[in-house]
Sequence to fold (669 residues):
Amino acid sequence: MHRNDHLFNTEEQKATSVSSTLKRLGHYFRPYILALLVIAAVVISSTYMQVQIPELTGQIVDCYLTPYATGSAIASETGGNLPLTMPDDGQNLPGGQEAFQSNCTYTTPNLTATADETISGIGTLVLIIVALYVGNAILSGLGFFLMSWAGFHVLRDLREKVFAHVHRLSLGYFTRHEAGDVMSRFTNDMDTLSQVVGFGLLSVLQGALLIVWTVFVMLRLSVPFALISLITLPLMFVATRWFSAQARKAFRIARKEIGSVNADLQEGISSVREVQAFSREQENIDQFQVSNAATRDANIRAQVFTSALAPTLDALGYVSLAVVAGVGGYFILTGQDMGTTAISMGLIITFIAYTQQFNRPVQQISVLWTNIQSAIAGAERIFGLLDENPDVVDKPDAIEMPAIQGHVQFKQVWAEYNEGEPVLRGVDIEAKPGETIAIVGPTGAGKTTIINLLPRFWDVSQGSLTIDGIDVRDVTRSSLRQQIGIVLQDSFLFSDTVLNNIRYGKPGASDDEVIAAAKLARAHEFIERLPEGYQTILGERGSGLSQGQRQLLSIARVALIDPRILILDEATSSVDTRTEREIQAALDHLLSERTSFVIAHRLSTIRHADQVLVLQDGEIIERGTHQSLLEAHGFYYDLYMSQFRRQITDEDDIEAIEEDVDTFFVPGD
Fold:
């Protein structure tokens, strides 16, 4: 079991853009614009409250705890000198009481205030600070709730869109991509996205707004001091940009590798019977260990970069605090001004608080950066799936297929799965209504391709395929497929009741119609013997039933929809002789007055076909009835003598083979 790794490497090679990915993700939030507007108002209000708290703390210090320092600052601004002792009325201060009070925006302190008045003023500011903290907590909680509500609605919409898109993709996509990798986009990639669209996304947005607002207020209070406080900002930006770029690359690889793990896991579970039958358990375990180790290494590399970012920003944040405290303390001790700004103890405390407030969202974003980068990588994979175009699509002016009569014509049909590698070469077939066309030939001759073209699982690359004179490319796929019944060699059953499995192709069918179809397919008797009859719930893919029983249910499902064109791909190959006789009797009735294309190696089917087409290397090399082809002593005759003579499965076949051998055997052949 070896995966086609080149199929998975294409995503890593694609050009990626964070901005375009975020823009596409934002498109899914449009239906919830009202919630987003409320969230925006909440975030702005909450951020405003957070920004006010440091300034109020500084005012407590300058306006009440160190008024003499404030007075010194005022004197310094006016070029005067302040005595060591403050006059009781403060009127001798340069600028006076009025200038002092202008620095205190929330209260009106007085330089001659009593101790009780001072305590009252401090209490007022403390209550305002507490109210701001409480309001911020309430608004933050409301914002996170609304963001989670909108985010999980977006995830629901995105999952539904991806699931619907997967069903629109042509079968060719699933031959190029393993099911486990596709499933990984629904599970792991969606999970990483879900960790961000709620709490993570709002934290980043609110943190970014807080950073900008904090910088604005710092610049308003003192441009020189603000520039000194933000001296490490360029280093933070460079570090964040570099580490995030490396982390995004690593997480993109990690997301690809986890898809490979899921693919190996899905394949290993699905093939457990074959693995045990061929004693390949250890080889499968070794293969899984390789892909699992690759996932481990990719995730470790991603974590190295994301883990290094947080302590780097922490260190730079402490440097900022040291700079603010050191520079501010120096100017206070020396009594110097910083340009036009007088440095006070309250201003230093305010800037220390703002520096911490600035560093906190930066560090918070860095902590969330692991999830953010992983989510962006996951979103890229999800959108990459949505960008896959179906190989087969309806024309803009496609019409509904009228009721089919069953006249099918292949005219010089060429078909290919990979460009430049034709599987069919100039095939001509005409099947009149009610005829049965048997298709035989060696493996890889193109038999399955012919029947895949009828319901438009693939389109012809050259030539035309018409039904009742209408090119199948001119009608909608759904209207065409609703009138074609398909019974494959490997029938798929769902984890549902027997009744619903038969009813799958015709959801509105009554119970009586389902039972009639089961009787027609000779499935009624064994269904009645099941524990709960038609209400028995089947296991995954019909586990608990024999292969023959699963095939009978698949035939009953097709019989219920009463198709005008019937496709049988080795429909009786997995049943025993007795069951085949019963199925064949049912099929004889089902095939009557229907155009049928049968891929079969059973002699009983081929002998009664109106036409037998012999394919080799994508071309029809012989055609005719069973007997006419035997008389020709060509490729079909050799195939028949080497293959069908070994199928002595019942008395009818024995008699038919002996009759054919006596009639057409030439001594020396």
